[in-house]
Specification:
Elements lengths: L4 H26 L5 H27 L7 H21 L3 H26 L23
């Protein structure tokens, strides 16, 4: 297991909770409760900051941690998507803001699943490929 896999898992779970809250806040706003727009806006800013932290930790899993690159790539995609999401939201381009939000939600769920597997992975011996087990001697080989 890469060194920063568990901290990445925690950050991804926080990110996912914030993404879920974003959808809930947007739903409340679209249901006619205008006050929820402020919560949606504030949560979006926090969400973007958490995504940046997630990207940094994902890079640490990959480069010094000898882990897979996919969490860093997926985190970078999320940061870029959320940057566009903020822009589309402030510009009130809902035809792009809503579908992009759905895509962000989907990628976030994939990150939750993937980092769960990564955090439970067997540690590697010596930081490289696993060492093959020696075969047990048979009765004929003795």
């Amino acid at each position: 297991m890469p060194r920063f896999a568990r901290p990445l898992r925690v950050i991804v779970l926080l990110h996912a909770a914030l993404v879920f809250a974003q959808a809930a806040f947007a739903g409340q706003f679209l249901a006619g409760h205008a006050a929820w727009l402020r919560a949606h806006e504030a949560n979006g800013g926090i969400l973007h900051l958490v995504a940046l932290v997630q990207l940094v930790v994902a890079v640490l899993v990959w480069r010094p941690g000898n882990g897979p690159a996919w969490p860093a790539v997926a985190s970078l995609v999320l940061v870029v998507a959320e940057e566009f999401q903020l822009g589309f939201g402030y510009a009130r381009v809902l035809a792009l803001h809503v579908p992009l939000g759905v895509a962000i939600f989907g990628l976030t769920v994939a990150m939750v699943v993937g980092t769960g597997r990564l955090a439970r992975a067997e540690p590697r011996s010596g930081g490289g490929a696993p060492t093959p087990a020696r075969p047990e001697p048979t009765a004929r080989g003795r």
